Amino acid sequence: INELSRCIEPIIDSLPTKYSEALHLSEIKELKQKEISNKLNIPSSNIKNILFRGKKQIKDKLHQCCSFEYDKFGNVIDFNKKDKDCNFC
Cα–chain-centroid distance for residue 23? Predict the structure, then answer.
C-alpha cells in the first residue's frame, strides 16, 4: 500500500491546475478548506466541490492503472498494476 501512495502525487500533478493546486494544499500540505480558499482566492463554498471532483479524478486514474483487492469494510488491502507502462506508479 505504501507503493500505491507514491502514485498519488504524480496523479495530482497530472490534473487540471485548479484541482492539482487545491489537492496539493489539502492532501500534501494538510491545509483546511478555509485556508485553501484564502490561498487560492476561491470561495470556500467551491473548495469542497473542487476537492471532491479532484479526488474522483484520482480514483478514476488509479482504476485505469491498477486493480484493487478490498477487505469487507471497503479498505484497499492489495493492488496490482494492470499495465507496466502506467505513467503514475
Answer: 7
| Angle (CA) 36 40 45, round 5° | 60
Residue for cell digits 470561495? 43
Angle at the Cα of 29 from the Cα atoms of 9 and 65, rounded to 5 degrees: 15
Nearest to 64 by CA among 78, 81, 47, 46: 81
Q: Record the pTM.
A: 0.82
**In the 8-state DSSP scheme, what is residue 82?**
S
What confidence tens digit (pLDDT) does each residue in 33-86 have?
A: 999 999 999 999 999 999 999 999 999 998 888 889 999 999 988 888 887 777
